[in-house]
Design a protein that fits this description.
Layout: H1 2-28, H2 35-49, E1 54-58, H3 64-92, H4 99-107, H5 109-113, E2 118-122
Antiparallel strand pairs: 1-2
Helix pairs in contact: 1-2, 1-3, 3-4
């Protein structure tokens, strides 16, 4: 079932969201300081490409640097990426078939706003994050 949902997601919005994260990652990787943010954008882009069957959990070893990084991310790229999730989610919720995919888009908003200090894990192992 997850595969079917992921394929429909890929066609409806996953590919375009992936391209948005890819663009954000490339732009952030232009400078040396932005490379960690670019890597986070690529990681979340892969999650946005194929989200069903995976979830995000907080990393226990993430500290103050990830908090400061999240503030910078929010200003540099997070706001715009979250806005793409809102627009795509609203457009998908117009049809009955698109409602689950719109809800999935809305669930991606928190990780697009504050991605550092989070880890993407399979949904059958949500507590298997690194210590």
């Amino acid at each position: 079932m997850k595969t079917i949902l992921n394929v429909i997601w890929l066609v409806l919005s996953g590919f375009w969201l992936f391209l948005a994260y890819l663009l954000a990652g490339v732009l952030l990787c232009i400078t040396i300081i932005g490379i960690p943010f670019g890597i986070a954008a690529f990681r979340i882009g892969a999650y946005a490409l194929w989200p069903f069957g995976r979830t995000t959990v907080e990393r226990r070893d993430a500290g103050a640097p990830s908090c400061v990084g999240n503030v910078l991310w929010l200003v540099l790229a997070g706001w715009w990426l979250a806005l793409t999730h809102v627009v795509t989610g609203v457009l998908l919720c117009i049809t009955i078939i698109g409602i689950p995919f719109g809800i999935a888009n809305f669930k991606l908003i928190p990780v697009s706003l504050l991605p550092l200090g989070r880890e993407i894990v399979p949904t059958d192992q949500p507590f298997s994050s690194r210590w």
